[in-house]
């Protein structure tokens, strides 16, 4: 793979992972703690809020494409570039771990609170909100590590 094309793909991946990280950072710092008030009025407010402002269109295509590109770049990197390959490997591993937490949060918590029947899930929401905050911290940590490795891979001088 040509160096310039490789660098552009890696830059795209860096952009997507940075977009993902700052999105989950916002959710974890601003959105998550506010969910701890699990009164029905507050839950209805959040349900109405997410029906108007849906962040999925901003994150879903770019984050997963950036992750796929990152993994493809790992496999396309020759063994001779061991340092770069190692950074891409760890960036991909930590990004996938972070995405696993995100997929769980989206499918098991956010969809039920934002698009589901609140009366049906009223008993489970308080424990799901605590789980959201714990998993949010974990995915931020793994996302930050992935972003760091991706940035280090991009800044590697021997590309």
Question: What does it look like?
Answer:
Helix content is 84%, strand content 0%. With 159 residues, it is mostly helical. The radius of gyration is 18 Å and the shape is elongated. The mean pLDDT is 88.
Secondary-structure map with pairings?
Elements: H1 3-34, H2 40-52, H3 56-76, H4 82-115, H5 118-121, H6 125-154
Question: Which terms summarize this structure?
Answer:
mainly alpha; 0% strand; 159 residues
SS elements, strand count: 0
Tell me the series of helices and strands, N- to C-terminal.
HHHHHH
Query: Poorly predicted ranges (pLDDT <50, ≥5 residues)?
Result: none
What's the helix count?
A: 6
Q: Kindly state the percentage of residues in helix.
A: over 70%
What is the total number of structural domains? 1
Question: What is the makeup of the main sheet?
Answer: none
Mean pLDDT score, rounded? 88
Shape assignment: elongated
How much strand?
under 5%
The Cα radius of gyration reads: 18 Å
């Amino acid at each position: 793979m040509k160096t310039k094309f490789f660098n552009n793909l890696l830059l795209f991946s860096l952009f997507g992972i940075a977009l993902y990280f700052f999105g989950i950072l916002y959710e974890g710092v601003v959105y998550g703690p506010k969910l701890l008030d699990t009164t029905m009025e507050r839950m209805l407010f959040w349900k109405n809020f997410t029906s108007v402002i849906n962040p999925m269109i901003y994150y879903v295509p770019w984050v997963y494409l950036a992750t796929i590109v990152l993994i493809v770049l790992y496999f396309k990197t020759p063994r001779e570039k061991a340092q770069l390959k190692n950074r891409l490997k760890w960036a991909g591993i930590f990004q996938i771990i972070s995405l696993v937490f995100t997929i769980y949060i989206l499918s098991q918590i956010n969809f039920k609170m934002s698009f589901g029947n609140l009366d049906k899930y009223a008993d489970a929401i308080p424990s799901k909100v605590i789980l959201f905050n714990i998993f949010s911290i974990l995915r931020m940590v793994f996302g930050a590590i992935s972003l760091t490795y991706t940035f280090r891979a991009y800044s590697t001088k021997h590309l």
